[in-house]
């Protein structure tokens, strides 16, 4: 699932608030928010290295069943100059409301 995440820090124990797309009962778009706590941050040199060490399905849902296809989609979103800056994988768990 693709989300929009807004955070000031990715320190362990920090809280991220993710905005998930959704719809209201009337069928109108309404975003849902979910607070999560950071439990792990991993830095990788490339998207390939990330996909070798992380669960592709956790990253891309059903698209993760084909890691090469997932890699192509990720690269269509993030250009090479962004990938060269490094790739963060952030492990989170839901916080209790």
UniProtKB/TrEMBL annotation:
Gene3D superfamilies given in the database record: Hypothetical protein
InterPro entries: PUA-like_sf
Highest taxon above the source species: Bacteria
Protein name: Uncharacterized protein
UniProt source species: Nonomuraea helvata
Lineage: Bacteria, Bacillati, Actinomycetota, Actinomycetes, Streptosporangiales
């Amino acid at each position: 699932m693709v989300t929009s995440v807004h955070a000031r820090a990715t320190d362990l124990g920090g809280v991220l608030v993710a905005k998930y797309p959704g719809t209201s009962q009337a069928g109108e778009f309404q975003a849902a928010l979910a607070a999560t706590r950071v439990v792990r941050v991993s830095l990788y040199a490339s998207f390939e290295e990330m996909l070798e060490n992380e669960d592709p399905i956790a990253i891309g849902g059903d698209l993760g069943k084909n890691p090469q296809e997932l890699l192509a989609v990720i690269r269509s979103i993030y250009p090479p100059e962004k990938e060269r800056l490094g790739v963060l994988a952030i492990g989170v768990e839901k916080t209790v409301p």
